[in-house]
Each structure stands twice: as C-alpha cells, then as structure tokens.
Amino acid sequence: MLDIADELSRWVRQGRAFAVATVAAVTGSAPRRPGAALAVDAGGEVIGSVSGGCVEGAVYELCRQALRDGEPLRESFGRSDDSALAAGLTCGGAIDILVTPVPAAGGGTRELLARALASAARGEALALVRVAEGAAAPAGGALLVRPGGGYEGTLGGSAGLDARAAREAGAMLDAGRTGTVAVGADGDRRGSRSVLLVETALPAPRMIVFGAVDFAAALTSAGRFLGYRVTVCDARPVFATRARFPDADEVVVDWPHRYLAATRTDARSVLCVLTHDPKFDIPLLTRALTLPVAYIGAMGSRRTHEDRRRRLREAGVPEEALARLRGPIGLDLGARTPQETALSVAAEIVAERRGGSGVPLTGARVPIHHDGPRPAPGRIGSVA
How far apart are CA 145 and CA 180, in angstroms? Predict the structure, then answer.
C-alpha cells in the first residue's frame, strides 16, 4: 500500500473506509512488481493498479468483499483462459494479492497504517509488515519498522515473531526491497510458519542536472515524472532561476563541482552534466566519477566527448572510472528537440536502472520485465 501512500494518506485524513489490494509475490512475467497496490473506498472510488488492467476488475470485487466482511483476503491470479469472464494475466505470469480492509473507525491497526502512510508520503524511509498467510499469527496485524530497527505495532502472534519480523524488515529496508519472508511462530524458521509481506519505502532518489539550459528544463520535467527529486545547479545566477525551472525541487546557484562535493548522493542518484564547458565539466566529472552513484551522463557531440575524456585522463581519472561515463548522453532516438532529448536521456537512465538493453522489443529475444541493473557497465546507445 506504500505504493500509493499519497492518495491513501489523504483518504485516512478524510476518515474514509477502504480496502487495499497489494501485490505480495510475482512468478514469471507480470506487469507490476511486489508492492504495487490498488485501493477501493466505501463509495467505490478506485486508485492505483496491480496488473496494468488484466485483473483489476476481479481485484476491485475482492476489495469490496473485504470492506463488507472486515476480513483480509488473499488471492492468486495466473494465466487467463479464453473465457471473456476469466480473470488472469495474459503475459503468462502469476501474482499473489493480499487485500487488507481499513475501517473508518479508529483502532490500533488503522492508526499504525495512518502513521506509515503519512511517513511514506513525506518521503521518509520505513518498512511495513503484514501477515500474508500462515498460522503463526492472525491476519490483520501490522508492524511499522524504522531505519535502525525500531518498530511499533504487532502482528498479533508472539513477541519473538514481532522481533524477528522487524529484523527481517530492517534488512529488506536497507536493501530497498519489497517482498515476502517466511518465519516461524516464535520468530525462527521452524515449525508452524507464516509468510510476511514486507513493503519498503525510501526517499525519492536524486537527479542532479548541471547546466541551466533548455535541455535541462525538459530533463527536469522528465526526471520528476520518473519519481526523482530533481536539483538544477549552475554557477550563473541569470540562468539558474526558479522561473526557468518550475518542475525542479530546488535550483542551486553554485559551481557544479563545489556543490557536488557538499551535497549528499547515494547508489540511486543520477548525475546529468549538460554544461558543455570544460571549466565546469572537468572538475565536476573528476569528482562525480569517484562517487558510487547509479548513473553519470554528459551531453555533447562525439568530438566534445573525446576531448572531455582526454582532459579527464590528464586530470588523473583512471580508465575504469571513465568507463562509467555515458557520453554522448542518452539513447539513439534521433532526438532533436529538448523534449525528445530529455526522453532519450530518461530512457537510458531507466535502462541502466532496470537492466534493459535499449533495443526495440519488436523481434527481440529479450525479457520485457527486468529485475535489476545490468551487471557490468557498457554503453547502450548515444545521442550526438
């Protein structure tokens, strides 16, 4: 349910009763991953998605049933048959769905879910644990786990179960992973076991765009669309203004390399260098290529990029670090306009993040859905 925390947090504040269907597990090819959610309120309003349309009608009815009965439900959907009324996935995979009713009246679980949803909507890191199936604990309880291992709530079983669930959830939160884990009634892995659904929420990853140019304005919009917290940085105050970049979360006037040295990045951050000027590019990229970030790309022609690589070598950047630099930035879409170029860059970032090849799916023998980044760096494509 953390997948749609913004909307659900609003429903909680409005005092609505609702039921949330969450993808607990996926087998084979499926449109959405564990954690994807769909919610239905008492009036029939729907938000979210669990399958991109394949089983939404059936899941809607499950949510309505959970609201009427006040009890959690679990259902599995596999490949659909030829019946027009059959609910299933046309892609050939299977998904397990956990449906949790959240009544309008106050209560321990509703209040805990309200705190979890509000925290996730504010971009805070947390894990939410619920019982998906099994006898070690009754359905309906929940744990809210914070970074560092602190937790509140209960799954309704033993204290050992809550403690073990919190440890498992903390490890999954550290990895940024949502999925299921099986634990025993006393918190071990023996005897009667329950399957727990652990959803994690992390602050939005950062996209830092260096160079306050027209291409940066389009890329800022694309980055926000993809869920990044976007910063635009440029040393020239006449260009780095809020009016020019309304979609940016922040606009910073500073020398790019100085700002990068002072700000916080992590393994999910992406850095896009659009400055086209060696006095900005070289000190910035020299610093950037030492950081364990997800993506570093630099705009410019092939001639500009080769000159940039030469200058970076002269600055002492080793070849293994240079291999991480995407340049010319983006995939080969034939892009011309700032908006098309932003799409090209965004596509390369998604391919790096998800492990895509960047080739057309038509006729390609590659997976449609990927579970992680490509194992080794290598250029996917380019935009001159």
Answer: 15
